Model the fold of this input.
Amino acid sequence: MKTLIITGASKGIGLETARLFLAHGYRVINFSRTPAPLDTIENHYIDLSQPGAEKSLRELLDKIIDPSQITLVHNAARLTNDTADATPTSAFRDIMEINVMAPHILNQIIIPRMTQGSSVIYIGSTLSEKAVANSYSYVVSKHAIVGMMKATCQDLSGKQIHTTCICPGFTDTEMLRTHVGENEEVIDAISAMSTFGRLVRPDEIASTIRFAAENPVLNGAVIHANLGQIES
Ligand SMILES: NC(=O)c1ccc[n+]([C@@H]2O[C@H](COP(=O)([O-])OP(=O)(O)OC[C@H]3O[C@@H](n4cnc5c(N)ncnc54)[C@H](OP(=O)(O)O)[C@@H]3O)[C@@H](O)[C@H]2O)c1
Done:
């Protein structure tokens, strides 16, 4: 049976991705702090920002994963408001733990168990290839994710395992709404920044993730899924 292993499927883009892969017959394993609200998902509760997560993840995955066709989706992330000149190191490290170290750790444990046809899908951001003010740690981490994806592509050459980085635009999830303080005027302004005049739906990103997982021709690609952002 094909398996999806995903971080952060308790809500938002991760939940819609889990739902879609379940509908296509995958076994779905989720790592997050709270459960995904679908009883057919295998939920494992873990705080990926804790440095001790590696030992628990390895012990657990040793028990539940055999070599097989796996899609690994690095989705969980945190977005904070901070700047290049005033971010405490501990806060920066915290973001790196979940946004960068967790994908690294899961790669070490899971890629050796991947058979041909498997894939590693990274979730980047528009901020994987550009920066805006006041999102310092997130911008750094999302640029790192593109580097990790490109290195994954090169290092897995010949193994018939592919990798892609999907970069969502403004997507209607808790992360975005919390970031803008649930302010509908800001949501409207952000929506107007796309050529379609609306936010991306989480299920649209889920479909893009599945397309990437099923199409090895996209190996090494950075895909922007954002409805076309209006350039100023
Ligand atoms: N929404 C957007 O506009 C947008 C734009 C560009 C890129 N993205 C990217 O898309 C991905 C998904 O974002 P989203 O908008 O769907 O966010 P979301 O609705 O806030 O969901 C984030 C997920 O990450 C999990 N998570 C957060 N901290 C965690 C931790 N310490 N340990 C384990 N799991 C943790 C959460 O689960 P628990 O709370 O249950 O732990 C949740 O399932 C992220 O990589 C994000 O950077 C989003």
